[in-house]
């Protein structure tokens, strides 16, 4: 995204293809699709620039304790495609990853705390033996 002040109160806003911008004026949020725009109202601010394509990131988890109190650290891969950037912005998240990180950690904690460590190792061995 390129943004520059052209004259006085005008600001050029170039949103790349497959991206969007969220603009705010007071309590009102607006979706702005890809393309060139000129913002002429000084009370309009850029809240965020988001890609609408697929994204993937590696996320290490915090230590999670199994049912038999063994600490486990996991590394998961999150893959997402943002479909409603206005909702993301309304809830105060700066990036989709921020929204996904807490939820993913919570779900993993709920799963792992119900398993014994030996069951997790057995499951991992089954997965690796069938995948090869």
Q: Describe it for me?
A:
- 29% of the residues lie in helices and 41% in strands.
- The chain has a three-stranded antiparallel sheet, with no helix packed on it. Strands 4-3-6 form a three-stranded antiparallel sheet. Strands 7-10 form a two-stranded antiparallel sheet.
- The chain has three helices and ten strands.
- With 132 residues, the chain is of the alpha+beta class.
- The relative contact order is 0.14.
- The chain starts with a strand and ends with a helix.
Task: Let me know the average pLDDT.
Answer: 86
* Cα shape: elongated
**How many strand units?**
10
* Percent in strands: 35-45%
Percent helix: 25-40%
Gyration radius from CA atoms, angstroms: 21 Å
State the distance separating the first and last CA atoms: 43 Å
As residue ranges, the low-confidence spans are: none
Which sheet architecture does the biggest sheet show?
3 strands, antiparallel
Count, helices = 3
Category from helices, strands and their pairing: alpha+beta
Strand neighbour order, sheet with most strands: 1-2-5
Topology order in helix (H) and strand (E) letters: EEEEEEEEEEHHH
């Amino acid at each position: 995204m390129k943004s520059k002040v052209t004259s006085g109160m005008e600001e050029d806003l170039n949103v790349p293809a497959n991206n969007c911008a969220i603009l705010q004026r007071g309590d009102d949020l607006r979706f702005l699709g890809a393309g060139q725009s000129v913002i002429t109202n000084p009370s309009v601010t850029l809240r965020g620039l988001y890609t609408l394509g697929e994204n993937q990131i590696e996320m290490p988890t915090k230590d999670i304790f199994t049912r038999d109190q063994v600490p486990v650290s996991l590394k998961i891969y999150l893959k997402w495609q943002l479909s409603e950037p206005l909702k993301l912005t309304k809830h105060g998240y700066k990036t989709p990853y921020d929204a996904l990180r807490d939820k993913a950690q919570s779900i993993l904690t709920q799963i792992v705390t119900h398993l014994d460590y030996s069951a997790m190792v057995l499951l991992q061995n089954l997965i690796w033996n069938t995948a090869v």
